[in-house]
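Reopening this ticket.

The earlier resolution said the output was attached, but the attachment link was broken on my side. Pasting everything inline this time so it's all in one place.
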Amino acid sequence: MGRMSWGVIPFSLFLLSFAACTSPATEREVQPAFYYWKTEAHLSTDDRAYLQELNCGRLYLRCFDVDWDEEQQQLIPVAPVALDTSTLVSFEVVPVIFITNRSFQHLTLAEVPVLAAKIERKMEQLLQGLPQNQIREWQIDCDWTVSTRDLYFALLEAMKAKADAKGCLLSATIRLHQLRYPEKTGVPPVDRGMLMLYNMGELGNWSEDNSILNLTSTKPYLEGLADYSLPLDMALPLFHWGVVFREGEVVALLPQANNNTLADTARFQQMENKRYQVKTGTFFFGTYLYEGDWIRLEQVDNQQLEQLMLLLKNDFPTAPFYLSFYHLDSLLLTEFKPAQLKFLLEMMENQ
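Inline output:
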């Protein structure tokens, strides 16, 4: 594998950013949190007011992705976040690094420590402007498979050693198939897991009604929840998208798609069951759609989230945990009032 060019940051800056990391308090209650999944991290006044009304003090902040670059023939950081630290000073920040599963197809065991060091340095570079006491946990996000498990877990062990040295916890995201089949996929060697309770259905199946949140598909995957050996937090979806099909294949996801943005009858013909057909070639928020493309609109409502809580509340561990929402977006938050999310928190508290 070629060299990974990630930039160099003096170790002294790392100390400034992370030396004061401590373990979070362990209150026996459900705490709200949000994922912030943008390339520019700037909380608006409305964002901050929303979080304050919800008494939310934690943000899971996407820092960058790690992926294989064919042209450079190396693993590289992709789309690093640009932080406006002045809007984040009152929040605990959990930096999240997303690693593509294919990255491990281009990695050897000997190169794992090098990758861990580069991730640490890049994370430090991006977060150096935050106050010292804001970072108590790091999170690695990867949808690993049986074939990539050993290398991924080796990377997690290397990252955990670095997090431990800074007094921070290390968490990893857990998909439903990894929850259901721990004997195959393994349990990550980290302090906590974040159970991702979305993208549960068959995205590429045109007859699927809602791949974001399919309760029928989800239920069997929760059977091993009570016995999972890792302390868990959970993440719920607060987003929608349009799934674009062309010649029977998924070719794009449109996060801006909703009933209003698809209401232009000159460009889109509404069909049954939240389906649309593109009537003429057009640009849609930067994505070109061809005549004849099909769009399936998928969204999540509060009733569906309440039904999911009912599925979870009896088997989810009773220890304190974070109920996280994906993701913080000013337009999406108009669809979910703080009182609605508070009710979900109360449902899980009253187990």
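Reporter confirms the inline version is readable. Residues 1-5, 8-20, 22-28 have pLDDT under 50 and may be disordered. The CA atoms of residues 99 and 110 lie 18 Å apart.
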